[in-house]
Amino acid sequence: MKNNIRFAALAALLVFALPFASQAAEDIKAKPWNLAGEELARFDAKVVDIVCELSGDCPADCGGGSRQLGLIAGNGDLLLAGKNSQAIFTGAVVDLLPHCGTTVTVDGLFTGIDGGPKLFQVQFIRPQGAGEDIKANAWGKTWNANHPDLKDKKGPWFRKDPRVNALIERDGYLGLSHAADKEFLEWFE
Amino acid sequence: MRPGSILRQVLFGAVALIALTGQGRAAGDGERIQVTGEIMDTWCYLSGVMGGPEATLGTAHHTCAMWCAAGGIPVGLRTEEGEIYMVLKLEGAGTADGSPAVLEIQSNQITADGMAYARNGINYLIVERIVSNEGITNVSHEDYGLVPPFAIPKGEKKKILGSE
């Protein structure tokens, strides 16, 4: 029994030592963003469809971009990849989707406020066997490809996005009404 | 040590490892719940990129929440107690592609019925049905202004104020 306990303890130690320590700290390429609870990391992980992992509802294409994707680290933890490397407002699904179901090396940072869940921001992805990291910045290019009529118009994508602009047109920037926007600006400006 | 004994110990260690890591956990161990809270932008709330978390809720952050949802940032539901659920599906559809249904409820106070899952410190929710929607009730711009301040472009501000 004593030996069994020793083996279990060793297994537990291995589990907790492995998760994000698969790459040396000096290999990390991610840049700090000075975010809450920030922790830079580079590790191998399997890209997964989170709905599939949790509920067993598993379409062949990992949802084709409609589902949030996660990372299963070396210790079996399911991590939520919430952001790519672009400055603001862009998630990681477009960058991770081509790798869904495969193991890649991800490089980025964990962030989260005290007591809250942690999100992983993916800055680089290296598929197995590839010689170089791929920068996780595919979202903007994909938006441009999907909006050929808007991509050359002045301004960032989020100012031009027809889905968002239709709702601003209807409900205003505060989401209450155009009258509420005006009342706020008259007071605030 | 006998080979059989070593094999038993290795197997015991492997079982302990699987139990500890959750790798052997079967999909489908969720719990049906009804939960009430605000639909919110998880990145800005959790990362602190826009300042304190309270400033990234409600009307102050409404436009930014729509931008983040359109950009595929995970959408959350935050309860009054501050618990956060990552909303993975909304009435049958995924939430990562900025669908009109997902954008429509940003900053809204809703009661959702669905399946909840917890894994590695994160709560997830598959919303099967929105039971009720009170609309936007968190009038946070009165405390925080606009978050981020550039949410309304300068030219638009002039138009809204009628000075252009």
What is this entry, summarized?
Chain A has helices at 2-17, 50-55, 93-96, 138-146, 157-160, 162-171, 178-188; strands at 39-49, 69-73, 78-83, 103-111, 119-127, 134-135. Chain A is α+β, with helices and mostly antiparallel strands and 189 residues long.
List keywords for this structure.
heterodimer, A: 189 residues, alpha+beta, 2 domains, five-stranded mixed beta barrel, B: 164 residues, 6 strands, elongated
> In which range does the helix fraction of chain A lie?
25-40%
Q: What count of structural domains of chain B?
A: 1
Structural shape of chain A: globular
The strand line-up of the biggest sheet of chain A is 1-2-3-5-4
For the biggest sheet of chain A, the summary is: 5 strands, mixed, barrel
Keywords (chain A): Signal
Protein name (chain A): Secreted protein
Signal peptide (chain A): 1-24
Structure description:
The complex is a heterodimer of chains A (189) and B (164). With 189 residues, chain A is α+β, with helices and mostly antiparallel strands. In chain A, 32% of the residues lie in helices and 22% in strands. In chain A, strands 1-2-3-5-4 form a five-stranded mixed β-barrel. In chain A, a hairpin with a 7-residue loop joins strand 4 and strand 5 (119-127). With 164 residues, chain B is an alpha+beta fold. Chain B has helices spanning 3-21, 42-47, 62-70, 100-104, 141-144, 154-161; strands spanning 31-41, 75-78, 84-90, 93-94, 108-119, 122-136. In chain B, strand 5 (108-119) and strand 6 form a beta hairpin. The chains are: A alpha+beta (189), B alpha+beta (164). At the A-B interface, helix 1, helix 2, strand 3, helix 6 and helix 7 of A face helix 1, helix 2, helix 3, strand 3 and strand 4 of B.
